[in-house]
Amino acid sequence: MDAKVDRADALSFIKAEFRDCVDDSMFAFDDHTDIDMQSKLLACWEALSAPMHDRLSFMDKYSSSAYAAEMSRAVDMWSEVAVLITLLGEAISLHNKLEVTLRFHC
User: Fold this and answer.
1) CB-CB contact of 9 with 43 (8 Å)
2) Domain region containing 72
3) Which of 3, 8, 26, 53 is the most buried (most CB within 10 A)?
4) How far apart (Å, rounded) are the C-alpha atoms in residues 55 and 45?
5) Reduced to 3 states, what is the DSSP secondary structure of residue 96?
6) Does residue 52 fall inside a structural domain?
7) For residue 27, what pLDDT band results from cuts at 50, 70 and 90?
């Protein structure tokens, strides 16, 4: 049987059996984006040199039912921050090189 069908059937079963305990926001994810989100998050952490305790805190927070639906948005936002910080670092590096060059030529 197809893995997507199995997962959909399992989620339908859980929703039906535990309808008083769960809501649809707990299942707000797409099969095809799970791996993409994980890759994006790992790249973000590497770019930011995030320490392990921060990574674990992030995962602890967004694995709770209160925040699970917001994880995709949080990963997107942290990815944008990682890009901006990388660009800022490059801009500072270029500024410093320019400053050294101007001092040398003056």
Assistant:
1) no
2) 30-105
3) 26
4) 8
5) helix
6) yes
7) very low
Cα 45 to its chain centre, rounded Å, is 9
Return the HEC string of 24-81.
HHHHCCCHHHHHHHHHHHHHHHHHHCCCHHHHHHHHHHHCCCCCHHHHHHHHHHHHHH
The angle at the Cα of 42, spanning 91 to 44, to the nearest 5 degrees, equals 25
| Cα–Cα distance, 48 to 12 (Å, whole number) | 38
- pLDDT value at residue 26: 47
Q: How many domains does the chain have?
A: 1
Phi, psi of 10 (to 5 degrees): -65, -45
- For residue 24, give both structure tokens: 């649809």
DSSP state, residue 102: H
Query: For the chain, how far is it from start to end, CA to CA, in angstroms?
Result: 74
Q: What are the pLDDT digits (tens) for 48-92? A: 999 999 999 999 999 998 998 999 899 999 988 988 988 898 889
**Residue at 87 is within a domain:** yes
